[in-house]
Specification:
The chain is α/β, with parallel strands linked by helices and 213 residues long. 38% of the residues lie in helices and 21% in strands. The chain is built from 7 helices and 5 strands. It has a 5-stranded mixed sheet with strand order 3-2-1-4-5. Helix 6 packs across helix 7. The two termini are 24 Å apart.
């Protein structure tokens, strides 16, 4: 494989196109509790093989019909689901727009499919999958079960699993007052993921080398 091929995104993650995602919700049950906010950040790899932030998408989401709003959850994330100032739009519109952008990124980077990158990724992945099924969307570009979890990576690399603490341990600034905003958390997660991927490259771990034990 040539140096150019090794620095292309489609050869870095088994052909997957990494997309950083954060959802803010009205509870923990992906099938019953409302999604209130979604942010998505796409990534690209420059000509030298360094992973960087590309495009940002951010939406306030209308609670779906019959969804549950848990008071403790909205008190925690400080979102008023019914405020007209939110400019919220339907799940269907949000997912279709996100999926369209992701599919374009997959095609342009010659990747096989998208993969969700998130902090405690199983949570965000479950909500995205449940919303996709709920809205009858047939062509979901994301892998049905695989994810890249920055909480796990943080525990391995810097010994922290909380996003704010992992960022601090990595030398990335984190404003606690902005936490639990989907866009802010997604941005910090994207910065953290790029730092880990690029750090591995700096240490000589990528491109992969055969190790003789």
């Amino acid at each position: 494989m040539s140096d150019i091929e090794l620095t292309s995104l489609n050869n870095r993650f088994r052909g997957f196109y990494p997309v950083v995602v954060d959802v803010e919700t009205a509870g923990f049950n992906a099938k019953k509790d409302a999604i209130l906010e979604i942010a998505v950040i796409t990534l690209y790899m420059n000509y030298s093989g360094w992973l960087q932030i590309d495009k940002k998408l951010h939406y306030h989401v209308k609670p779906f019909k019959g969804s549950i709003i848990n008071k403790n959850s909205i008190a925690f994330n400080k979102i008023d689901p019914f405020s007209p100032l939110r400019g919220a739009v339907s799940e269907t519109k949000v997912l279709n727009e996100i999926f369209k952008k992701v599919k374009i990124g997959i095609k342009n980077n010659k990747c096989s499919r998208g993969i969700i990158v998130a902090h405690n990724a199983s949570f965000d992945h479950k909500f995205i999958m449940a919303a996709t099924e709920r809205n009858g969307i047939k062509k979901n570009p994301f892998h049905p079960f695989a994810t890249f979890d920055t909480a796990s990576l943080s525990g391995l690399i810097v010994g922290q699993t909380v996003l704010a603490k992992a960022c601090k341990a990595t030398g990335i600034s984190f404003d606690i007052s902005k936490a639990h905003s989907a866009l802010y958390d997604t941005l910090q997660t994207a910065i953290l993921f790029c730092e880990f991927v690029n750090r591995w490259k700096k240490l000589g771990g990528w491109p992969p080398k055969k190790i003789n034990y």
